[in-house]
Amino acid sequence: MSILQDILTYNEEFVANKEYEQYQTTKFPNKKLVILSCMDTRLTEMLPRALNLRNGDAKIVKNAGGILTSPFGGIMRSIIVALYELGAQEVAVIGHHGCGMASINPSATIEKMKAAGIEEQTLNVLDYSGLDLHKWLHGFDNVEESVRGSVEIIRHHPLLPKHVPVHGLVIDPETGKLDLVVDGYENLPAASRNE
């Protein structure tokens, strides 16, 4: 059975047995939080459980490495929409130890692309268009610095309200232990702090 067929077969039973009822909530995050984190499979259930989040408590935006690389890309748009349209009031960037983006080798990845049938001409067109694939595929060397960098991009975004705290944390995907990298409350204007 294919992966897709397995999913569809399971889904029929899921819906027929009304298993969805236990997950019903609204589109507004109960804990008023939007999280940027990594797509690592170890975090699928570990991250929400380690943060005491239930279905509906937070908006979770995921990508490779939990890295914000563009202040005007889709990740930042999702954060802005969560803040202005969906009731989020705080942002957390959560990286993790042992992230694959810390060890990615862009040259090796490009070679895998070629082996999968991506033609050299396509790579040349991308290069000519101004996309530096090596830079685009590079992750980070230090997870704490990566988290700080993403926090800074979000915190200084021209559309981010000044009263919104942007936190930075690193989670251990094996134990769920969180390490605080940036306390977003410390960067708020004095009038916005809940002291």
From TrEMBL:
GO terms for molecular function: carbonate dehydratase activity; zinc ion binding. SUPFAM superfamilies: beta-carbonic anhydrase, cab. It is an enzyme of class 4 (lyase). Signal peptide: none annotated. Keywords: Metal-binding, Zinc. Its cofactor is Zn(2+). Binds 1 zinc ion per subunit. Its EC number is 4.2.1.1. This is carbonic anhydrase. It comes from Tumebacillus flagellatus. The lineage of its organism: Bacteria, Bacillati, Bacillota, Bacilli, Bacillales.
